[in-house]
Amino acid sequence: MAEPAPVYKLRSMLQGHSMDVKHVSVVQEPSGALLTASRDKTARMWYQHEDNSHSVRKIYKGHTKYVSCSVYQEPSEEFPSGLIYTGCQDGKIRAFLPDIEDPLFQMDGHAENVTSLFVGKFGTIISGSWDCTAKVWVNRKCTMTLTGHSFAVWAVAILPEVGIMVTASADKLIKLWKAGVSTHTLSGHTDAVRSLAVISSSEFLSAGNDASVRRWSTTGDCLGTYY
C-alpha cells in the first residue's frame, strides 16, 4: 500500500520586499538562510531563527532596475565568506560580499534582462538573458557566449563533473552544451521552458508554461513527463 502524501504546513513568512519577489534560492551557510530577488530593485539575505522564523540580514542595493535572480557562491580562497551574485533587468550581473550591501564588482555583457544564474562547483558561472543568449563567466570575464535560442533564455544549469551546460528558453527548447558547442536540442515542451533542476551528473528536470515537468538524460532522452 502506498504511503500517504506528506502534508505541508506554512512554517514561516518572509516580509520586507515592497514589490513582487522574482526569485528565491538557498544559501549553504548559515543553515536555513535564504536569498530573495525582487522588482523593488533589491536582493535580500534572510537568516533563520530557532523558532523557524526569518529576519532580514542584509539588503543588497545598487541595482538600477528590478532584480530577476540571485545566487550564492560558496567560499573560496579569494572570497572566504563567499559571494552573492544578482542578475538585473539592466543586463548587468553584480557581485556582493555577504556582509556588504553595496556591489563589489559587476560583470557586463548581456544586452537585456539577466533572467537566471547558476554557479558551478569550481566557480564557473552561467547566465541566461532576454537577449536570447547564455554567457559563461570565469574569473569575472565572459569566456563563452552560447547562441542558438530564438527567444529569451529563462533558465540555465551546469551538470556536475561532466562539464555539460543546459539552457532552457521561451522558444520551447532545451539545449545541452559542451565546450561552447550545442550537442543536443531537446523538444517536448509545448510552451516556454521556465526552470531547470539538476538531479545528477546525467539527469535533470525542466518545468514549462505547459504545466508539465519533464525528466531528461544527457543523451537527450525524455525519461518522464509529470502533470
Write a concise keyword list for the protein shown above.
227 residues; mainly beta; 4-stranded antiparallel beta sheet
What does this structure look like?
This protein is an all-beta fold. Helices cover 0% and strands 50% of the residues. The chain has no helices and 20 strands. The chain has a four-stranded antiparallel beta sheet with strand order 1-2-3-4, with no helix packed on it. β7 (93-96) and β8 form a beta hairpin. It is globular. The two termini are 22 Å apart. The relative contact order is 0.09. The mean pLDDT is 95.
What's the layout of helices and strands?
Layout: E1 21-26, E2 34-38, E3 43-48, E4 54-60, E5 67-73, E6 83-88, E7 93-96, E8 105-107, E9 114-119, E10 125-129, E11 133-138, E12 141-147, E13 153-159, E14 164-169, E15 174-178, E16 181-186, E17 193-198, E18 203-208, E19 213-217, E20 222-226
End-to-end separation: 22 Å
Oligomer: single chain
Strand content: over 45%
Main sheet: strands, sense, barrel = 4 strands, antiparallel
Number of strands: 20
The parts where pLDDT drops under 50 for at least 5 residues are: none
Strand arrangement within the widest β-sheet reads 1-2-3-4
| Average pLDDT level | 95
How much is the radius of gyration in Å? 18 Å
Shape, principal axes of CA atoms: globular
Share in helix: under 10%
SS element count, helices:
0
Structural class: mainly beta
Order of helical and strand elements: EEEEEEEEEEEEEEEEEEEE
Write a concise synopsis of the structure shown.
By secondary structure, this protein is an all-beta fold.
